[in-house]
Design brief:
By secondary structure, the chain is an alpha/beta fold. It is 17% helix and 30% strand.
Amino acid sequence: MANMTLLTYEGEAVLIDTGMDEKDLQIIQRFIKDQNINLENIIITHMHNDHTANLRALQTEQMTLITPENAKQGQILELGKRTLKILFTEGHYKPRGHISVEVVEDNILVAGDILCNSILPPIAAG
């Protein structure tokens, strides 16, 4: 139940959510080190602890941190040749409190807890 997604492109990375415990932190840190990846940005889908618990341990001053509080609808981040688009997706957390990330070229949506299979209801209302 690691609530995090690492998107990589040619040694650069964006982390969506930071996991929920020390084990998640160790896994992601080891992977980043072993693969010689530069973690450029962190995106937090919403401010529940299972998505933010390791933020302080992973964030550096050089990174851009995007959260629902500072994100803009349709905001674009570049990851190599990939375009990441921020979308506000309501229904799981307070109003304007949940974002998803679209990987435009690959037609992929990283949806935080809007779609999940580990809690009920599996599709958030809203």
